[in-house]
Each structure stands twice: as structure tokens, then as C-alpha cells.
Specification:
It is a single chain. The chain has 468 residues and is an alpha/beta fold. It has two domains: 169 residues, 3-Layer(aba) Sandwich (Rossmann fold), CATH 3.40.50; 258 residues, no CATH class. The chain is 52% helix and 12% strand. It is built from 17 helices and nine strands. The strands form two sheets. The protein has a six-stranded mixed beta sheet, sandwiched between helices. It has a three-stranded antiparallel beta sheet with strand order 7-9-8. The two termini are 34 Å apart.
Length: 468
């Protein structure tokens, strides 16, 4: 065995080998195509953590001539342990056996075997030939059942045959594999060979610690984001009091854009933590995250109903010492509901709902400025948190094997759950509310003290979500 565990991912063309490798090494740049035969050379992809390679997977070409290969091996007169080396010498210059030489070379060099097959189709003689070739290698080997079409009518037939040739058989869908499923697969590889247990045990531990580190980073970035977002405001000088409403609308739009950009940067940072290219990230078609941050859909799905919106506006107005006309408030809510989408935004919220503080500030004799922000309802922190958590959920369940139309997210009932935070304990929601109060009041010392608690809570929540 090499000092670093290495596994050759082997199988028939177009059975999902490259998808398995892409998922295990978290590399969404590995070429994956529905056309068979795209991989023509073996490519080694190491997994690097903290700058050190801890395990590697070899993406190999598919078998082209397994029946002829098996026939030659059965006629080989030497020791069975030498059959692979002899085959590679015999056919090194034979273009007809180029794929077989490519896929058997890493095995000859000491790699373990992960055999990938599509169990949604019937078992064929050519499959049996491939299995027997891999058995003759004498290397520790695992078979992965990948039902590409979702049909499982041939599954038991496959399992019965595979048990005759492999040390272990597992089902693994590379397009839907979660972190927990990847960890279970790595744990299974430990059992293939006693001599590998220690090295693979260390790999599993490193993977788990690295995942915890990523979650800790995401929690820290989320707290940084909240601290900034909750305190954001826009100010401009007011030269003409008759233009106050116009200036307020302009500032509200500016604040809205700034908050969107801040959230977008956080989403990109979370993608980077899990080795995804944000530019290729796709959300499910009906995800609420496709809605603008300030759309009516966003605020209602994440728990701010019409009644809660009225209550929040009244509370915000009372806190600011402003007498609100409930009739006016109701009409503006109706406008908000009618407009929907991003067009409603902070400008509409500001005008009647009292969710954004608007202040006229003195700047000396004859000079005034208008300030819009921060948002003045405690529900704001839950809207922000739920959007971050939902984005995190999709990122960690976004397999590196997905390509365009293959996007198959893990399911989450966005509308029914009214956001992840709705299921939190009273203590957790109270912590968020206290943090909101401190952050929006400018109490920096209390904000930082509460942030330590909030960060620890978010780390635990992200870890829990990743184990679902």
C-alpha cells in the first residue's frame, strides 16, 4: 500500500465513474459527459487538506475489451499474482488494449479498487468478465451500485453476483451524496484491508475536522455579515425639505442594493468554503432564494405574515417615538402585497410600514441630513439567517458531480418550514433577538459578547444540518 491511500475508480464506460470521483474529491471541474468513452487516460485526483494530500482517487477509462482481456489472463501460465504485470508488458503498445492498460496500471501500482456500475440495467456477460478481471488482480475492492435511472428491479441480481467477486458492496448515488454518505463510504474503505485501517482512519478524522472547520468559518462569516447588515444605514444632506420623500426613496434604494451585495458576497464565500464555483451554482427552480431579499414572498415564507408585519411596524414605530396611523399602515401593506417582488423593496417598506428608521438630523445652522436605516424589526435577523441557512443547505447538498440539467438538490420544505429558525428553541430565538437589539442600538461591547454565543450556536446548527 502507498503511504497515502489511493483508489482506482473502475467500470464500464458511462457508468458514473467520473461522477463518483468528482463527488469524493470535491472537484466540479472534472469532465463529466453523457457520451461514453470521454475518459481515455487515467487521471489522479488527490484530496488536499491544509496543504497536504491525504487520499487520492484515480479516474480511469472504461473497459473496452474485457472478454478478450479475461481470456488472455486465463491462459496465462505464471503465478496469478503476476498476471497484471505480464498483461501490461504484453499489451503496452497495442491500441486495442489501451484502455485496459490505463485502468490496470494504478491497480498494479498498489491502488485499491472501487468498481462503479449502473444497477438499473440487467446484468450482462461483459459485466461478469470485468468482475472476474478485478478479482484476479488480488487487490482489495469495493463495488458501488449506482442506479442512474432510479430503477432497482435488477438490484438483487447484481448484488448476488457482486458478492462473489468483491470484498464489499455499497449503494452510492454520486449526484445526491451528502457529506454523511461520503463519510460512510470512507469508513467502509477502512474495512477492505486491515493494513489500511490506520491510514484511512486518519483520513476519516481529517475529513471530519476539516468539515467542522468549514462550518466554523461559515458561522463566523455569518456573524460578520449580520453585524454589518443590521447596522447598515444610508445618509444624505437635505438641501430642500420639499424633496424629503424623494431623498428618502433614493436612500432606501441605495440601502437595499448594499444589503443585496453584502448577502451575495456571503453566499459566494460559503460556496468557496465547500469548493464550489459560485458562477456555476444553480438554485432549485422553485426555491425562495430565487426571490429578491426584499420581495413579499421572501418575507412571508420566512415567517413575516401580514399580521406580524403590522405588529412589527407598530412596535418599530413605538420604539422610535412615532405615532403611526394604522389605516395608512394597512393601505401600504396592501400596496406591498400587490406590488410584490423587488419593486416593493425598502422604499415601499419605509413609506408606511415603519420597518426602516427615517430620521432628519441636524448638521448645524441651516443644514440637515436624512438617514434611512437600520431596519427596525426583529424579524429582519431571522429573514437574513434563514436565507443564509437555506443557501448553506443547498451548497452542502450540491454534489460536485452535478452538471447543468443534472442539478438534483436534496429536498427541503421551504414554505412549510417557514425557515429553519422557526424550529429553534425559545432560548435560541431569544439569543438572536438580543443580538439584533444590541447590533441595531450600536452597543458594540454587548454585540461582541452576544456574538460569541451566536457563533457557537450557529456552528452547532450547521453541523446538525450537515448530518441530516
Amino acid at each position: 500500500m502507498n503511504s497515502m491511500p489511493v483508489f482506482a475508480v473502475i467500470g464500464h464506460p458511462n457508468e458514473g465513474k467520473s461522477s463518483v470521483v468528482a463527488t469524493l474529491v470535491e472537484n466540479d471541474r472534472i469532465r463529466i459527459s453523457p457520451r461514453p468513452g470521454e475518459t481515455v487516460q487515467s487521471m489522479t485526483y488527490p484530496v488536499s487538506i491544509d496543504g497536504q494530500d491525504v487520499i487520492a482517487f484515480v479516474d480511469t477509462p472504461g473497459f473496452q475489451n474485457p472478454v478478450q482481456t479475461l481470456g488472455w489472463m486465463r491462459k496465462f501460465k505464471g503465478p496469478e499474482s503476476e498476471v497484471i504485470a505480464a498483461f501490461l508488458v504484453e499489451f503496452k503498445d497495442d491500441p486495442g488494449m489501451a484502455h485496459e492498460c490505463e485502468l490496470l496500471t494504478p491497480v498494479h501500482d498498489g491502488a485499491g479498487i472501487i468498481y462503479v456500475l449502473d444497477a438499473s440495467r440487467p446484468l450482462r456477460q461483459v459485466d461478469k468478465a470485468e468482475m472476474e478481471i478485478l478479482r484476479l488482480t488480488g487487490r482489495p475492492r469495493m463495488a458501488i451500485l449506482n442506479c442512474k435511472t432510479g430503477e432497482e428491479q435488477f438490484l438483487e441480481e447484481w448484488k448476488a453476483e457482486l458478492r462473489r467477486h468483491f470484498n464489499m458492496v455499497r449503494t452510492f448515488n454520486a449526484l445526491r451524496a451528502t457529506f454523511a454518505e461520503r463519510m460512510r463510504l470512507l469508513e467502509s474503505l477502512r474495512a477492505l484491508e486491515q493494513d489500511w485501517e490506520s491510514a484511512l482512519g486518519q483520513v476519516v478524522d481529517v475529513f471530519a475536522r476539516d468539515w467542522q472547520r468549514r462550518n466554523a468559518e461559515c458561522a463566523a462569516m455569518t456573524c460578520d455579515f449580520l453585524r454589518t447588515a443590521l447596522g447598515m444605514a444610508e445618509t444624505a444632506e437635505l438641501f430642500d425639505t420639499a424633496r424629503k420623500a424623494e431623498v428618502e426613496a433614493m436612500l432606501a434604494a441605495r440601502l437595499e442594493a448594499g444589503l443585496r451585495n453584502l448577502e451575495e458576497r456571503l453566499h459566494e464565500q460559503i460556496c468557496q468554503q465547500f469548493r464550489h464555483d459560485r458562477r456555476s451554482f444553480e438554485l432549485p427552480e422553485h426555491s425562495v432564494l430565487r426571490q429578491d431579499l426584499f420581495s413579499r414572498t421572501t418575507w412571508t415564507v420566512f415567517g413575516l405574515s401580514r399580521g406580524k408585519l403590522v405588529a412589527a411596524a407598530v412596535a418599530a414605530g413605538g420604539a422610535a417615538g412615532v405615532a403611526l396611523d394604522l389605516a395608512t399602515l394597512g393601505s401600504s401593506l396592501g400596496l406591498f402585497a400587490t406590488m410584490g417582488g423587488a419593486a416593493a423593496g425598502l422604499a415601499a417598506l419605509f413609506k408606511g410600514e415603519g420597518l426602516v428608521r427615517g430620521k432628519v438630523l441636524g448638521l448645524g445652522i441651516g443644514r440637515r441630513s436624512v438617514q434611512v436605516g437600520p431596519l427596525d424589526t426583529v424579524q429582519w435577523i431571522f429573514v437574513l439567517l434563514d436565507r443564509v441557512l437555506l443557501h448553506y443547505w443547498y451548497v452542502i447538498h450540491w454534489s460536485h458531480a452535478w452538471r447543468g440539467g443534472d442539478f438534483l438538490p436534496a429536498m427541503v420544505d421551504e414554505g412549510g418550514k417557514q425557515g429553519f429558525s422557526s424550529a429553534w428553541s425559545r432560548e435560541a430565538r431569544g439569543l438572536c433577538a438580543e443580538y439584533f437589539k444590541a447590533a441595531t442600538s450600536g452597543d458594540d461591547s454587548k454585540t461582541m459578547a452576544l456574538e460569541l454565543e451566536l457563533r457557537r450556536f450557529l456552528e452547532e446548527e450547521l453541523e446538525r444540518m450537515s448530518r441530516l
